[in-house]
Amino acid sequence: IKMAGDSRSPDVDTDGSEKNEETEIVVNVGGVRQVFYGDNLNQYPETRLAELINCLSGGYDSIFSLCDDYDPGKREFYFDRDPDAFKCIIDVYYFGEIHMKKGICPICFKNEMEFWKVDLKFLDDCCKTHLSEKKEELEEIARRVQLILDDLGVDASESRWKRCQKYIWKFLEKPESSYPARVIAVLSFLFILISSVVMCVGTIPDLQVVDAEGNRVEHPTLDSIETACIGWFTMEYVLRLISSPNKLHFALSFMNIVDVLAILPFYVSLTLTHLGAKLMELSNVQQAVQALRIMRIARIFKLARHSSGLQTLTYALKRSFKELGLLLMYLAVGIFVFSALGYTMEQSHPETLFKSIPQSFWWAIITMTTVGYGDIYPKTTLGKLNAAISFLCGVIAIALPIHPIINNFVRYYNKQRVLETAAKHELELMELNSAEVKAANSKSEPEDLAREGKEGPFYSSRLKVSHSDTFIHLLSEEKHYRTRLQSCK
């Protein structure tokens, strides 16, 4: 900082507030020099720049507590910080708010604001959104890395049952953990497909048989295949429930509820078949069993557990509720208007198919959605004109929200791929850091090997030590290394 207001001495009179307000300072940040005035800086006295005004009176200790270097000949202070971020941060002294420039990492910008002691409340809401999104991404990376580290680590203090529980959980829930786990995932996927195919094939009349009461039922071979599939699903669900670290969260998870809905109808129908006939009429039992067997279609949703594409599609639809709501609103308004017009215009025709406005809703739905079954159609000229307009409005209404929905799908899919890659890179950095630590401590290796029997495998313990380099508190509070997550720009 160069004091341009006083050429005799760099010291500033702390008792002279007017002198402080008239003080002109020049700050050198990363080779870029900026000029400030005391009256602007004193608006926020708790910031680092405002503290610079009075730092010269405190001596070199006070000076170097605020800056990286000081040249007494030029009376200039140096800061080894990002000049681009600094140009954005100084807006608070002139406009009372800060906008983050495009291309700057939000986390790095937050760190810069903390260095210059500027409160985050001055950051505009639009930029806070980018910061929160970046935090969520980094927390997701940290969560994935932590899960991998937990899988690699072995806690000798845990009981044998706990270790077995973790092994079963990884075996069934994490196909990427080992080759046998991949085989189990493929088998589960095949059982889902086989069960779905059997459910469909069992409805073919030529493959059905007649029971003792004269009713057509599924072939016994198909029933046996169905029983085997249900046995696999049941065993898989029970093992996953037993090995789950949080059983309440596991039971209330949406996909696990789907698993229960796919399994439960088989046992309920089996119970009704053998015991229900004694409590109710046989026809009622058969109707109940038939209704429960229809619920078997829920097992097709089990494919979402093994398909990242279906998971991405589900998330995209959840993020597109607003667009889907607008679509339904447009269609609802159009259906009501065009069905009422169609009913009114078709009343003059003696053979009209529009008997009432509620009945015309069906015609408006299949017309606006461009299906057009042809079971109900207008016969008058005005009715045909109304149908043409409703068709065009339906095409426009359906086409409007398609682009935002596709964008949500692509954005989430690309984000998941980036997070997976980032987690792998972070693990690679941890391995490199652990190798450096191992090389630096090669002289004390015999002691480390002696502790290996008490603390677990050497590789896992080293990896856990090295993962504390990340700044994400989810992984560790300590910081020993500066990694890609800390230095992202």
UniProtKB/TrEMBL annotation:
Residues 25-126 form the Potassium channel tetramerisation-type BTB domain. It is found in: Cell membrane. The chain crosses the membrane at residues 183-204, 248-270, 324-341, 385-406. GO terms for biological process: action potential; protein homooligomerization. GO terms for molecular function: voltage-gated potassium channel activity. The keyword Acetylation does not apply. Residues 8-22 have a biased composition (Basic and acidic residues). Its main location: membrane. It holds the Pfam family BTB_2. GO terms for cellular component: voltage-gated potassium channel complex. Residues 1-23 are annotated as: Disordered. Residues 182-416 form the Ion transport domain. It is a multi-pass membrane protein. Keywords: Cell membrane, Ion channel, Ion transport, Membrane, Potassium, Potassium channel, Potassium transport, Transmembrane, Transmembrane helix, Transport, Voltage-gated channel. SUPFAM superfamilies: POZ domain, Voltage-gated potassium channels. Belongs to the potassium channel family. F (TC 1.A.1.2) subfamily. Kv5.1/KCNF1 sub-subfamily. Heterotetramer with KCNB1 or KCNB2. Regulatory alpha-subunit of the voltage-gated potassium (Kv) channel which, when coassembled with KCNB1 or KCNB2, can modulate their expression and their gating kinetics by acting on deactivation upon repolarization and inactivation during maintained depolarization. Accelerates inactivation but has relatively little effect on deactivation. Coexpression with KCNB1 or KCNB2 markedly slows inactivation. This is Voltage-gated potassium channel regulatory subunit KCNF1. It comes from Dromas ardeola.
